[in-house]
Amino acid sequence: QNNNKTTPKQQHGQKLQQIDGLHSPWSTLLIKWLVCQDDFEGDHRFEIGVSGASMSSTARRLASHFDEVGTPVMIGGNNLAHTILGVDWNSQLGTVRWLILDPHYIGAEDLTTIHGRGWCNWKDETFWNKFATYNLLFPARPDVF
User: Fold this and answer.
1) pLDDT, tens digit, for every residue of 69-83?
2) CA distances (Å), origin 11, targets 8, 25, 38, 49, 139
3) φ, ψ for residue 36 (rounded to 5)?
4) How many helices (H) and strands (E) are present in the chain, helices listed first?
5) CB 71, CB 78: distance < 8 Å
6) How far apart are CA 123 and CA 93, in angstroms?
């Protein structure tokens, strides 16, 4: 085992330290984007600075992403990180719900607990802090499969 080997997070973290004004609330998601860019071919999109108040505006992009690419979307902001697995968007009514997976869950694979306590569930716009800023990572589908 080579203890001198740096991890992708360390390698990219060193690069990011050189960026002026880097703020930690979005640096972790940016590191994930850089790792995706380096390790997986494809065009991985990264959106910075979506306000919680305007999260509904992401519905069309998310629906298109899930239809065309199908990969989960990582989102970070407000000192939180989540995974968006789907979007329920009614353009006629202007309503949006997001299927959110909280990646911090540790416990048994008990769907009653997971759904009942909101670890994976549909969330409406009240889920997002309207004063927070969020960053989204839209990974491309890996070519390795």
Assistant:
1) 998 998 887 778 889
2) 5, 18, 11, 24, 20
3) -60, -45
4) 4, 6
5) no
6) 17
